[in-house]
Amino acid sequence: MIAVVDYKAGNLTSVMKALRAVCVEAEATEDPNVVRRAEKIVLPGVGHFQATAFLERRGLREAIEERIAQGVPFLGICVGLQWLYRGSTEAPGSRGLAAFDGICDRFVGGKKVPHVGWNSLVVQQNSRLLRGVETGDFVYFTHSYRAPVLHDTVAVTEYGEAFTSAAERANVMGVQFHPEKSGMAGLRILRNFVELEC
């Protein structure tokens, strides 16, 4: 069973529909005990980084940390990706998981913010999550803050500057774009995640 964590900021309906499209059992939950039983965990997100404070208050952060330490695959989407870093300047008082180094920051450089719509990926290195996804493939974004390009980056996108569009280390993965809204490329990514071995 895949636990899709409901912290009142996720695109739950679209994510659940996309997971059903790749023929997998998923359960939307805010119950830490359900997360502790999950074979895989998805953390979607839309909106303000401050919403991730709910994870701490409900005991979900602790449950997620436990399962990640046990090798359970984890996928963060949009704000869910940003939560995997140490934090974000959008909500300095809310700490991220710190699975990846760095702080997420607002776009600079004169481009219209938020960055909304289709943009292409530059796939940088071997990635289990992005298997079969190629440089030049388009995916759907909607965000004002972005993750830095660091050693865990497996795909970048240009929007006035390069930012991390996908990051991966062992069983911890995240995408800034919305695979549930990204057509065939997005479904391939979700299928890759579903097929991961613990």
How would you sum up this structure, described in words?
The chain is an alpha/beta fold. It has one domain: 3-Layer(aba) Sandwich (Rossmann fold). 24% of the residues lie in helices and 28% in strands. The two termini are 13 Å apart. The mean pLDDT is 95.
Given the helix and strand composition, which structural class is it?
A: alpha/beta
How large is the count of helical segments? 6
* CATH architectural label: 3-Layer(aba) Sandwich
CATH-defined fold name: Rossmann fold
Give the averaged pLDDT, no decimals. Answer: 95
Spatial strand sequence of the major β-sheet: 2-1-3-4-13-12-11-8
- Element-level helix/strand string: EHEHEHHEHEEEEEEEEEH
Number of strands: 13
CATH homolog superfamily: Class I glutamine amidotransferase (GATase) domain
Distance between the termini: 13 Å
CATH C-level: Alpha Beta
What oligomeric assembly is this protein in?
Answer: single chain
Q: What coarse outline follows from CA principal-axis ratios?
A: globular
What helical percentage do the residues reach? 10-25%
What is this entry, summarized?
The chain is of the alpha/beta class and 198 residues long. The protein contains six helices and 13 strands.
